[in-house]
């Protein structure tokens, strides 16, 4: 059996990009005869300025959307990162394995620290070191596959590097994981800025489709999506025509088609946008309906998380204890 792990930060309302690039892929994974763990990585939400009440609220919402998207707690393990101490226990050992240079080369650190400095905010040390905590999230479970979006591939590569280095220095301890990405829509782009990722942390921008947006809101955002100048028609070209390519990627991910082949069926942008809007509304409709049902029963969601945390601890503790012995620490 292959062990799978992945997680999402509760730093904003989940987007269409989160669903296509992560959640739907996770649901497919938990239908396989594998051991899958999916986590709300709430500790990662503390690396930047935040409202504690909002983090708690979003953590519950993300967990509920995990279930609403189709993840079955009888087939996979769903839990809250902060409920399993092994994540932070292992993170320090990996900080003793990583280097300052590796942390400062991480793309997301460069981007987020630059924004923080530009706004006059201090850069938290945890923003620099959180990729190590992410590596601990993965390595604590003997993870073999990490289903992620394209923007997270660098973090999985760091986890691989740290696992190999630890094993070479202190003896075979960790499984070396690999990233797996969906075939299309691995990185859904902002509908207004098609060269930027559709991110959940940037606020309610007009180019971001959230999983819980009303159908009318979704249609308005898609119909106002930026296309590309020129009269070359609908052509799938990510470099020269990023706006149209993004719409075709989304349509392909929703319908199971091929973006380039779908482009051949359109002579204008209007029809393409209408079809994309329809496809997104229908894709998210059952998820939204199930979310409403689950949100009315918060105790049931909390029970799933409690049971999941117990399972996760049982899996992680032997691996983390082995790492403590390997690096030279006395057993308590």
Automatic annotation (TrEMBL):
<comment type="function">
    <text>Catalyzes the attachment of tryptophan to tRNA(Trp).</text>
</comment>
<feature type="binding site">
    <location>
        <position position="188"/>
    </location>
    <ligand>
        <name>ATP</name>
    </ligand>
</feature>
<feature type="short sequence motif" description="'KMSKS' region">
    <location>
        <begin position="197"/>
        <end position="201"/>
    </location>
</feature>
<dbReference type="Pfam" id="PF00579">
    <property type="entry name" value="tRNA-synt_1b"/>
</dbReference>
<dbReference type="GO" id="GO:0004830">
    <property type="term" value="F:tryptophan-tRNA ligase activity"/>
</dbReference>
<dbReference type="InterPro" id="IPR001412">
    <property type="entry name" value="aa-tRNA-synth_I_CS"/>
</dbReference>
<keyword id="KW-0030">Aminoacyl-tRNA synthetase</keyword>
<dbReference type="InterPro" id="IPR014729">
    <property type="entry name" value="Rossmann-like_a/b/a_fold"/>
</dbReference>
<dbReference type="InterPro" id="IPR002305">
    <property type="entry name" value="aa-tRNA-synth_Ic"/>
</dbReference>
<keyword id="KW-0436">Ligase</keyword>
<keyword id="KW-0648">Protein biosynthesis</keyword>
<feature type="binding site">
    <location>
        <begin position="17"/>
        <end position="18"/>
    </location>
    <ligand>
        <name>ATP</name>
    </ligand>
</feature>
<feature type="short sequence motif" description="'HIGH' region">
    <location>
        <begin position="10"/>
        <end position="18"/>
    </location>
</feature>
<dbReference type="InterPro" id="IPR002306">
    <property type="entry name" value="Trp-tRNA-ligase"/>
</dbReference>
<keyword id="KW-0547">Nucleotide-binding</keyword>
<dbReference type="InterPro" id="IPR050203">
    <property type="entry name" value="Trp-tRNA_synthetase"/>
</dbReference>
<feature type="binding site">
    <location>
        <position position="137"/>
    </location>
    <ligand>
        <name>L-tryptophan</name>
    </ligand>
</feature>
<feature type="binding site">
    <location>
        <begin position="149"/>
        <end position="151"/>
    </location>
    <ligand>
        <name>ATP</name>
    </ligand>
</feature>
<comment type="subunit">
    <text>Homodimer.</text>
</comment>
<comment type="similarity">
    <text>Belongs to the class-I aminoacyl-tRNA synthetase family.</text>
</comment>
<protein>
    <recommendedName>
        <fullName>Tryptophan--tRNA ligase</fullName>
        <ecNumber>6.1.1.2</ecNumber>
    </recommendedName>
</protein>
<keyword id="KW-0067">ATP-binding</keyword>
<feature type="binding site">
    <location>
        <begin position="197"/>
        <end position="201"/>
    </location>
    <ligand>
        <name>ATP</name>
    </ligand>
</feature>
<dbReference type="InterPro" id="IPR024109">
    <property type="entry name" value="Trp-tRNA-ligase_bac-type"/>
</dbReference>
<keyword id="KW-0963">Cytoplasm</keyword>
<feature type="binding site">
    <location>
        <begin position="9"/>
        <end position="11"/>
    </location>
    <ligand>
        <name>ATP</name>
    </ligand>
</feature>
């Amino acid at each position: 059996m292959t062990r799978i792990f992945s997680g999402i930060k509760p730093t904003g309302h989940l987007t269409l990009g989160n669903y296509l690039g992560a959640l739907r892929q996770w649901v497919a994974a938990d239908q396989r005869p594998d051991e899958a763990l999916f986590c709300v990585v709430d500790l990662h939400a503390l690396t930047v300025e935040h409202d504690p009440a909002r983090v708690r609220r979003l953590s519950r919402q993300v967990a509920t959307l995990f279930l609403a998207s189709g993840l079955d707690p009888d087939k996979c393990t769903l839990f809250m990162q902060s409920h399993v101490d092994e994540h932070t226990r292992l993170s320090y050992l990996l900080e003793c394995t990583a280097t300052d240079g590796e942390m400062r080369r991480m793309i997301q650190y460069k981007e987020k620290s630059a924004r923080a400095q530009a706004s006059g905010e201090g850069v938290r040390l945890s923003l620099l070191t959180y990729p190590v905590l992410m590596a601990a999230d993965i390595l604590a479970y003997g993870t073999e596959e990490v289903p992620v979006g394209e923007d997270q591939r660098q973090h999985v590569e760091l986890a691989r590097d740290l696992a190999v280095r630890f094993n070479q220095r202190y003896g075979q301890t960790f499984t070396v994981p690999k990233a797996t990405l969906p075939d299309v829509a691995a990185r859904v782009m902002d509908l207004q800025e098609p060269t930027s990722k559709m991110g959940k942390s940037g606020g309610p921008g007009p180019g971001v489709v959230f999983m819980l947006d009303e159908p009318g809101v979704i249609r308005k955002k898609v119909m106002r999506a930026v296309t590309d100048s020129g009269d070359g028609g609908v052509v799938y070209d990510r470099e020269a025509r990023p706006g149209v390519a993004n719409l075709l990627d989304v349509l392909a991910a929703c319908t199971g088609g091929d973006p380039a082949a779908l482009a051949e069926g359109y002579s204008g942008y209007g029809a393409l946008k209408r079809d994309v809007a329809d496809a997104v509304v229908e894709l998210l409709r059952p998820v939204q309906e199930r979310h409403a049902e689950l949100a009315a029963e918060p105790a049931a969601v909390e029970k799933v998380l409690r049971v999941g945390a117990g399972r996760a601890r049982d899996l992680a503790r032997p691996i983390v204890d082995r790492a403590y012995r390997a690096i030279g620490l006395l057993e308590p």
